From TrEMBL:
Record's signal peptide: none
Gene Ontology CC: cytosol
Top-level lineage group: Bacteria
InterPro entries the UniProt entry points to: HAD-like_hydrolase_sf, HAD-like_sf, HAD_sf, PGP-like_dom2
Protein name as annotated: Phosphoglycolate phosphatase
One GO biological process term: DNA repair
Pfam families: HAD (PF12710)
Organism the protein comes from: Streptomyces viridochromogenes
Higher taxonomy: Bacteria, Bacillati, Actinomycetota, Actinomycetes, Kitasatosporales
Single GO term (MF): phosphoglycolate phosphatase activity
Alphabetical list of PANTHER family matching this protein: PHOSPHOGLYCOLATE PHOSPHATASE (PTHR43434)
Length: 244
């Protein structure tokens, strides 16, 4: 039997693998206050999956910062945000929670010799590494080849970033036919549809299973707890895309 082609598995982080509650929002508050010099009255919506640079831009504009000031303030906030999250590292461990089945699912995918597991996330890379490290999840992922909002604020572009990094490191070509995103949000689905990957939606966030399917997810799971089914679906979507 021929050896299975390698598949690139791109995990989302927030509400797919773990949930950090209000910590991200607190970090936005602290960063805004330090850079702008006053408290933020309105915060980014929860669980949308938008990239951090876009969330920061919205945070600035929704709190009355003139659009002409955004190009100067946004990079400063992007630079400060990881420092502020690092100061809450203990809070991540104490207040954050793992999503049901996350560790078993990550471990099982990691053990598949034909699967290359990394992340595509709206988090800045330092923030992503802090969150994953707080729960030891980085042990199951090659974070060097991931796609982060530090790379591009347009989330669908991160698929190609991860594919190119994986190809450079492993010498194998990764395209829509052998790349799959696993995520909970409508942004995760859009990232795959527009960016070039199949999508396994997980109804562990704010989007319902029906909403994920309607947005274009190839498969929708209620949770990550049914590991054998997850592995089967990864194989199915990465081997059958060209036949659809």
């Amino acid at each position: 039997m021929a050896e299975a082609e390698q598949s690139l598995v791109l995990w989302d982080i927030d509400r797919t693998l773990l949930y950090v509650g209000d910590i991200d929002r607190q970090v936005y508050r602290e960063t805004f206050a330090e850079i702008v010099g006053r408290p933020a009255e309105r915060l980014p919506a929860r669980g949308t999956g938008v990239t951090m640079p876009l969330a920061i831009r919205s945070l600035l504009l929704c709190n009355g910062v003139p659009a002409s000031d955004v190009p100067q303030l946004l990079p400063r906030m992007v630079q400060l945000l990881p420092q502020r999250l690092a100061a809450h590292e203990e809070d991540l461990r104490e207040q954050g929670v793992l999503m049901p089945g996350a560790v078993s699912a990550l471990s099982a995918v990691h053990e598949q010799t034909h699967c290359v597991a990394t992340v595509v996330t709206g988090n800045l890379k330092p923030n992503a590494l802090l969150k994953l490290g707080a729960f030891g999840l980085d042990a199951f992922l090659d974070t060097e080849i991931g796609g982060y909002s530090s790379d591009d604020e347009h989330r669908p572009a991160l698929v190609a970033v991860a594919q190119q990094r994986a190809q450079a490191k492993l010498g194998a070509a990764f395209t829509r036919s052998n790349t799959v995103i696993i995520g909970d949000s409508l942004e995760d689905v859009r990232t795959g549809v527009e960016g070039g990957a199949s999508v396994i939606g997980v109804a562990s966030g704010k989007a319902t299973a029906r909403e994920l399917a309607s947005a274009g997810a190839d498969v929708v799971l209620e949770t990550l707890e049914d590991v054998p089914r997850l592995l089967d679906e990864i194989t199915t979507v990465t081997q059958s895309f060209v036949e659809r």
